[in-house]
Design a protein that fits this description.
Number of helices: 10
CATH architecture: 2-Layer Sandwich
Structural class: alpha+beta
Shape: globular
Largest sheet: 4 strands, antiparallel
Number of domains: 1
Distance between the termini: 42 Å
Order of helices and strands: HHEEHEEHEHHEHEHEHH
Number of strands: 8
CATH topology: Muramoyl-pentapeptide Carboxypeptidase, domain 2
Helix content: 25-40%
Bound molecules: zinc ion
Length: 267
């Protein structure tokens, strides 16, 4: 990250002072993480496991969980409209059973990101159509397991104590555990997950077209009191085309929409 990018990040008007400090400290410590709302996104460094290896790993993990918890039902957590927020956590043993590598669907990624199959199929078409319109979209983060979130959060807690709760979702409360949420970036945003993405033309394209592919902005600007999170212009969640269209036509946040029509995560 060069000085100019850093200055822009620090001057970003929606950034709270504490988060500015957090970013600076993490840059100083060289931890290699981007922070915002429910985000703790590792910036890929060095060679990563192949997409196929990731897929095999998660499949094996899911099988193991099912064998360990034969009575646990994952039906409602597989529902695309399950509510996950600060008050509604996912069970620690929930992991989707149909994760696929995004690279298999032509989606550019910074690492070996995976999503649930239906979300990946729609995302593949979204990214392709955006490219036709001259917009680059790269996925910086897709599925994150409960354990991934737990480790990231513990790392933050060790540095910031209780303040870490304002910087990232506690384990079980991240939409990334659903396997249907993605964080976008691109060259114009220096391939980082930050508020600077909001100033790119790809962001405007997403605001107009993401719903056509079943994706919605989970934490919109001006809806902070409903969602419990700061505006995250890069964070989209797949809910299916029908619900995305209904949400687009309403004035509700995803949070309020799912509270009214979604599924509680009792699974
Ligand atoms: Zn995210």
């Amino acid at each position: 990250m060069n000085t100019r990018t850093l200055r822009r990040l620090l001057n970003y008007k929606h950034t709270r002072r504490g988060i500015r400090l957090a970013i600076v400290l993490l840059l100083v410590f060289g931890a290699g993480y981007s922070l915002w709302g429910d985000e703790v996104v590792a910036v890929p460094a060095g060679p990563s496991a192949s997409a196929a290896a990731w897929s095999a790993l998660y499949y094996s993990h899911n099988q193991q969980l099912r064998e360990e918890s034969p009575t646990a039902s994952v039906t409602s957590c597989d529902d695309l409209s399950v509510l996950v927020d600060r008050s509604h956590p996912l069970p620690s043993d929930y992991a989707p059973g149909d994760l696929v590598p995004l690279q298999d669907y032509g989606v550019p990624t910074l690492g070996s990101e995976v999503l649930r199959r239906e979300a990946a199929e729609h995302l593949g078409r979204l990214v392709e159509d955006a490219a036709v319109d001259g917009e680059e979209l790269v996925v910086a983060s897709g599925y994150r397991s409960y354990e991934d979130q737990k480790l990231s959060h513990l790392r933050l807690m060790s540095v910031f104590g209780e303040a870490a709760g304002r910087m990232s979702a506690t384990p079980g409360h991240s939409q990334h555990q659903l396997g249907t949420a993605v964080d976008f970036t691109n060259a114009a945003a220096a391939y980082e997950v930050s508020g600077f993405f909001a100033q790119t033309s790809a962001h405007w394209w997403l605001e107009q077209h993401a719903w056509e592919y079943g994706f919605v902005l989970a934490y919109p600007q001006g809806k902070e009191d409903q969602t419990g999170y700061e505006w995250e212009p890069w964070h989209y969640r797949f809910v299916g085309v029908e619900d995305a269209k209904r949400l687009q036509e309403s004035d509700l946040s995803l949070q309020a929409f799912l509270e009214r029509e979604g599924t509680m995560p009792h699974c």
